[in-house]
Structure formats: C-alpha cells, structure tokens
Amino acid sequence: MKKKNVIIFTFLLLISFFSFNIFKISQHKQTIKEQIKVLPEFSFSSVKENHKNISSNIFFKSKTVIIHFNSTCHFCQEEVQLLKDHEELLKSLDINIVLISEEDTNILQEFLKENELYNSDFQLLKSNIGDFYKLFGTSQVPTAFLYNANGKLIKTITGLSKFELITQTFLEDEKVNSLH
C-alpha cells in the first residue's frame, strides 16, 4: 500500500512540475509577444563600423526589417541575396535592412566580403549568444520582423521570405495608416 501511495505521489508531483513548466513557457511567450509589438530597445555591435554599438533608436521613425540570420544557413544566404538584388527598390521605399547574428565577428566580416555587402546600406550587427532570443523570442533563422515607421510590428516571417511579401506588407500598412 505504501509503495502504491509513493508511486501516486511521485506521478502527481511530476504532473505538477510539467504543468508548471508549460505555464511558465506560455507566460514567457506571451511576454515576448507583447514586448515585440513595438521595436524593442537594443544595442548590438556593428560588424561594418568597427564594433560601434548601434542602438535600435536609430531605426525609429523609419520602416525596418530586422532579420535574425546565420551565415551558414542556405535560406539566410538566399534571403540576403534577394534583398541585395532589390537594394535600390528598398532604398526608394525607405526600408532599412538590419541583419543580426550571434556568430563570431570574423565570420561575419568574411560574410560581408563574400556577399559584397560592405558598400550596401544594410546594417550587420552582432549580438551576444542568447540576447536576440531574450528580445524577440526566437532563435530560428531566418526570421524577419517588419516594423513600420511608427515602430509597430506589422509582420513576422519565419523562414525564407518572398521579397514581394515584404514590400506588399509595408505598402498595405501605409494604406491603412493613411486612412486614419
């Protein structure tokens, strides 16, 4: 009888533990969801500008695409090439591109060189491991966060995004905002 009670008690304890963890994870996801509704404050090291800290404040009042990426990710490489191919159109639409990675600075500098991004208007920022996840709640690459000129999140795109989806999202947001 005692053994049966111990087993039941252990089972209930495990159920309680797992339930509590599921609740905490759900609560964390909700906190992140609220946190990223508006462009969160951050400061990461610029790979192009000799480790100068770049703050998210410079992106307020402008349309911004923040892309979490990794230079070894095939889809990330495609995404960067797609954006680079349309850089002039992005510039004409006043859309900033901010690439953020947790990789070593030397690897990111090599990525800049290989992809001829040193002369582009794209920002390439290095975050410390885990910092991007703490702010945006994802470690998946590529993930793009589209913020309008008011700093409001208008779309999150997980995986390789179509260029037309990015531009269309910003154009639709401008139409909606112009009606108000």
Features:
single chain; 47% helix; 6 helices; 2 domains; Glutaredoxin
Mean pLDDT: 88
**CATH architecture classification name of the largest domain:** 3-Layer(aba) Sandwich
Q: If strands are numbered along the chain, what order do they take across the biggest sheet?
A: 2-1-5-4-3-6-7
The percentage of residues in β strands lies in 15-25%
The profile of the biggest β sheet is: 7 strands, mixed
Shape: elongated
Topology, number of strands: 7
Helix content class: 40-55%
- Termini, distance in Å? 70 Å
By CATH's scheme, which homologous superfamily of the largest domain applies?
Glutaredoxin
| Helix/strand order | HEEEHHEHEHEEH
The Cα radius of gyration reads 21 Å
- Number of H/I helices: 6
What name does CATH use for the topology of the largest domain?
Answer: Glutaredoxin
**Unreliable stretches:** none
Layout of SSEs?
Layout: H1 2-35, E1 43-46, E2 53-55, E3 63-68, H2 74-85, H3 87-92, E4 95-101, H4 105-114, E5 123-126, H5 131-136, E6 143-147, E7 153-158, H6 163-179
Parallel strand pairs: 3-4, 4-5
Antiparallel strand pairs: 1-2, 1-5, 3-6, 6-7
Domain Redoxin: 39-160
Transmembrane segments: 6-23
InterPro entries: Redoxin, Thioredoxin-like_sf
